[in-house]
Structure formats: structure tokens, C-alpha cells
Amino acid sequence: MSDLQLTEPQGARAFNKARNRKALLDAAALAIYKYGFKATTIDRIQEISGLSRGMINQYFGSKDALLWAVAEQLMSEYLENWKAEIRDPALTPAQKIEGMFRADLSEKVLNPQCVAIWFSFRSEVSGTVNFRTLVDKGDLQTEEKFKALCTELCEEGNYPDVDPILAAKTFTVILEGFWTDFHLHADRFDKKLAMNVCLNAARSFFPRHFQVN
User: Fold this and answer.
1) Which of 5, 39, 82, 174 lies deepest, with the highest CB count within 10 Å?
2) What is the CATH number of domain 1-61?
3) What is the pLDDT of residues 174-206, one digit of tens each?
């Protein structure tokens, strides 16, 4: 038997495994969006995915592990979204701050399903250490990056009286507020206005580096 004959079935199995795992993650996310965290049952995940209960056990071990994997994936996608926006080393600190605003308000993460799922997970953090740890880790990375960029901008732009920690916390809190507003009023949320609010806040700290559109 040739090497090709040996590797083809293995490749097909790997493909099917990845496809089934993704189908379960997508189904669990959609179930949380439609029914909420507590009402997301294995039966509902099965119904949406078209896969068996045994598949959930095979790929994740349990429903709780599957939901945890959804949370991890969501956080990974959120962090990668703003990291990709500011990855270009040619960008200035001010451009990177603006890029982080833009990323946080983009359709990739600020959409009804994604936001509803995040609020479902956040409602569980008081009783679930793992979810609290994950949410805190993501929030800390974002705020720490804002703080680092604000520190760079203070030095580069000669803003000796600006507290970069205060600026970073202000940006983080404003964006958190907009996510809540979007969650409650997605039908009338104005992303351009939200971006201008962020830029106005940045201009209040760094007046020579930001303009409101």
C-alpha cells in the first residue's frame, strides 16, 4: 500500500473531525444566542448541529466543556480582531488607539449574536470561576494595551500631565458602555456616533492627535 493510500483516510478523518467540532461550536453558540446560557441544552445543540450526543462527548467530553470552548473561541476572536487592526509596525500610537476603537465597534465582534452570547457568559461569572477568569483575562489584555499605547503617546506627543492609566480606563469603560447599549438597542445603535464619542474622549487627553469625524 502506498503512502498516499495511507494518508488519504487520515486526512479525511482529520477534516471530518475539524468540521464536526466546528459544527458543534457553532451550534452551541447559536443555541446560547437563541435560548440563553441556562436554557442551552444538549438536545438543542443536537437539533441545531444535526450531530449526536455521542459527538459532543467525543470532541468535548461534556456540554459544560463545549460551552467553555465557545467562550474561549469568542475571546480569542475578540482579541485577535483588535490585534490584527494594530499589527502594522508603521502605525503610530494614536493610529493604533483609533484602530482599537474601530475594531471594538466593528461588525466582526459588535453584532447581535456575539454580544448576546457575551452577556450570557458574563451573567454566569459570579458563580463560575473559569468564566470570570477568561473574561478578566480578555479585559485586562485590552486595557493593558490601551495603557501601553497611551504611555507611548504621552512620551511621543509631550503630554506630561496626562495619566495613561486614567486614559486607558476611560477608553475601556466607554467601549464597555457601548457594548451594553448595543445589546439593549441594536436596532438604533449608531456606530459612527459611537466612534466619534471615542475619538472625542481620546482628544480630551491628547488634543493634538485626534480629530472627530
Assistant:
1) 82
2) 1.10.10
3) 999 999 999 999 999 999 999 999 999 999 999
